[in-house]
From TrEMBL:
SUPFAM superfamilies: Isocitrate/Isopropylmalate dehydrogenase-like. This is Isopropylmalate dehydrogenase-like domain-containing protein. It comes from Streptomyces gougerotii. Signal peptide: none annotated. It comes from the Bacteria. GO terms for molecular function: 3-isopropylmalate dehydrogenase activity; metal ion binding.
Amino acid sequence: MPPVVGLAVGHGTGAELAEVFTRVLGVLTRDHPTGVTLVRSPRLYHSYHSLCGEGAGEPVATLTREDTDHYEGFCRSLAARGAGAVFRTAVNAQSLYLVRQRLKAVKVDPFAADDGEALLVRDEAQGFYTGTNRHTPSAVTRTMEFSRETTAEVVSYALERARRHWPDGRLGPVVMAYKFHLLDGVFGTWVAELSDRLGVRIQLCQPDTVNRDLITHGLADRTVLVAGNEWADIMHVVLLDRFGGERQENRCTENVYLHPDVRGLVEYQTVHGSADNLAGRDLVNPVATVRAAAAVAERHAGCAGAQREVERALARVLDRGVATADLGGAYGTTAVLDALLAELGETGVPPARQPGAVAVTVPGEGR
C-alpha cells in the first residue's frame, strides 16, 4: 500500500503553496515503488482576512465552527486511513486552535544554538488560544480552560520526544513557561505532582523569567522547553532568529496530535501566515513549503536523505540569488520552485503527471 499524505488548503496563498508542496513531493517520491497517495481536503478553509469579508461576530463564529468541524473530520478520516502526515497551509487561527484543543496538539521545534541544542514543545491544546467566544452587542466573552490531564499528556510527550531526539538519554533542564500565577496555585500543584511521578525535576517559570534567563544566559544545552501558547506563539519567531539562525518565512514546523483517535498523525505547516496580500501574485516565498515536503517525504514516505538533498539544492539556488523579494531577490514563486526542481533533477514532466504523488479528492462538502 502506498503511504497516505493529507493536504489541507486555506485562502490567501494556500493554492500556490499547495502546488509547491505537490510538485516537490512528486519529485522527491518519484522513485518510490508504490507512489504516494495525496489526499486533498475538498474544503477551502478560511484565513482571518477572508473571514473579515463575512462581517463580524456570530457570522464569523458560524464559519469558524464549520471550518473547525470539517478540518477535525478530515484529520480523523486521514488517521482512519493510516495516514502519517498532513500538510496544511495557513488558515484562521480560531479554527485551528479549536481543532488543536479537541485533538490535543503540541507543536515541536528543535533549535541548535552555538552553545548547544534545545527542544521547544508548545502546548497548543489548552489556554486562552483555545476556548470559545460568546457575543453580546458590546462585549466578547471568551471561555477557556487548563486541565490536569492535558498538562500531564503534554509534559509526558515532551519528555518522550526529547529522549527520542537525544537517544543517549541525557537531558538538560526541563523548563515550563506558563502564566501559572493566574491559576490560583492549581497549575503549580499539577506540575509538582508530575515532577514526582515522572522522576524529573521540572522548573515552572513565568514567561518573563524565562525571557530574562534567555537574555542573560542563553539556552542551556539540551533544554526541554514546554510552553503555553500565551508565551510560545509570540516568542517562536524570536527563538528562531536568536537560537535557530532562521527566519519564519523559511521555516516549517510539525504539530503532533495526542488524542488516541488520531495519535501518530503529524501536521506540517509553514511558520509564516496566509499572506493574503500576496495571493495570486506569484510572490510568496516557497522555501518553508519546500522544506515541509522534504520532511514528509523522508519521515513518512521512506525517502531517506530527502531533507539533506533539498537543503543542498536550496543552498545552490539561493547562492545564485534566485530568491523571492523577502529574501532580497527579484524572482517569483514559480521561478524559485523551477530552479529548485531543476537542481533536484526534474526532467520537464508537467506537474499534473509527476510520478510519485497521486492526488485523490476526499468526498465531502467543499467551499
